[in-house]
């Protein structure tokens, strides 16, 4: 089995208009999309963005007749504690292969909003990882923790600062991933668009030290030109951190693939 992109968005996401066909034209590998499930979404006026699962299933059925790829079902669940029961109910009603768990907003702002450039960075970083830790403890769903650095993307947090401000929280998060048999995502948008490769180079060895073995690789593509962006460079970074396998998911079960 090959390694393939585990984080891809289409027009079933509120922030993408990408067509399945434009991704599928680029690969004969298995293909999975992970469109946004984002409730109380500040980037959409506080509304609920939920992929239409019936329409999604119908689209995959049509594509199955046209393309040789194995077509898998995925979703990116943006965790928000006040809506946890609604998120769980939505996920339970769908038949997914892969559920990414993300921490995108605090109920008022998406963490990529420039507002977070105006707040105390140390306090924000610690609050972000406390929210992530609490959510991981509460959530009974999720196969993969996506882009652990999402709340830092608009900032300039150095590895030294992340170590000083949040290492104990991050180690607890990483141990929790291991105990819950969840994977940690290596997100190439974070690595190269947001220039957070040094943070991944810092945290991946911590994950390995606490017994972490499950890593996924995702582009976080919202347009077809970003599909599998910089995968060779990301694989090299992962190997330098001491990992030689990546996980791909089918019916929530990981398969480790050497690369």
Secondary-structure topology with pairs:
Blueprint: H1 20-24, E1 31-41, E2 47-49, H2 53-66, E3 71-78, H3 84-92, E4 98-102, H4 121-138, E5 144-145, H5 159-180, E6 183-187, H6 188-193, H7 197-209, E7 215-218, H8 231-240, E8 245-250, E9 253-258
Parallel strand pairs: 1-3, 3-4, 4-5, 5-6, 6-7
Antiparallel strand pairs: 1-2, 8-9
Helix pairs in contact: 4-5, 5-7
Pfam families: PHP
Keywords: Amino-acid biosynthesis, Histidine biosynthesis, Hydrolase
InterPro entries: Histidinol_P_phosphatase_HisJ, PHP_dom, Pol/histidinol_Pase-like
Question: What's the short version?
Answer:
By secondary structure, the chain is an alpha/beta fold.
Describe the 3D structure.
- The chain has 259 residues and is an alpha/beta fold.
- It has one domain: Metal-dependent hydrolases (TIM Barrel), CATH 3.20.20.
- The protein has eight helices and nine strands.
- It has helices spanning 20-24, 53-66, 84-92, 121-138, 159-180, 188-193, 197-209, 231-240; strands at residues 31-41, 47-49, 71-78, 98-102, 144-145, 183-187, 215-218, 245-250, 253-258.
- The chain has a seven-stranded mixed β-sheet with strand order 2-1-3-4-5-6-7. The chain has a two-stranded antiparallel sheet with strand order 8-9.
- Helix 3 (84-92) links the parallel strand 3 (71-78) and strand 4 (98-102).
- Helix 4 packs parallel to helix 5 (159-180) and helix 5 (159-180) packs across helix 7 (197-209).
- It is globular.
- The relative contact order is 0.15.
- The mean pLDDT is 98.
- This is Histidinol-phosphatase.
- Keywords: Amino-acid biosynthesis, Histidine biosynthesis, Hydrolase.
- Pfam families: PHP.
- Belongs to the PHP hydrolase family. HisK subfamily.
- It comes from Lacticaseibacillus suilingensis.
């Amino acid at each position: 089995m090959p390694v393939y992109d585990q984080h891809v968005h289409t027009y079933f996401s509120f922030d993408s208009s990408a067509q399945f066909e434009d991704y599928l034209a680029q690969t004969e590998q298995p293909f999975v999309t992970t469109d946004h499930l984002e409730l109380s979404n500040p980037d959409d006026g506080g509304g609920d963005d939920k992929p239409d699962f019936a329409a999604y299933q119908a689209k995959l059925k049509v594509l199955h007749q046209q393309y040789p790829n194995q077509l898998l079902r995925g979703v990116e669940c943006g965790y928000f504690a006040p809506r946890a029961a609604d998120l769980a109910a939505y996920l339970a009603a769908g038949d997914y292969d892969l559920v990414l768990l993300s921490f995108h907003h605090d109920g008022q702002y998406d963490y990529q909003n420039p507002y977070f450039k105006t707040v105390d960075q140390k306090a924000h970083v610690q609050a972000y990882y406390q929210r992530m830790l609490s959510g991981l403890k509460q959530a009974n769903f999720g196969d993969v923790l996506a882009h652990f650095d999402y709340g830092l993307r608009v900032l300039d947090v150095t590895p030294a600062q992340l170590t000083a401000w949040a290492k104990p929280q991050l180690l607890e998060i990483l141990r929790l991933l291991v105990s819950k048999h969840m994977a940690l995502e290596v997100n190439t948008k974070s690595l190269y668009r947001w220039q957070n490769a040094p943070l991944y180079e810092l945290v991946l060895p911590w994950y390995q030290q606490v017994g972490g073995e499950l890593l996924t690789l995702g582009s976080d593509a919202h347009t077809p030109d970003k599909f599998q962006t910089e995968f060779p460079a990301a694989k090299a970074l992962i190997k330098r951190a001491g990992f030689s396998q990546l996980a791909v998911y089918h019916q929530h079960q990981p398969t480790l693939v050497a690369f």
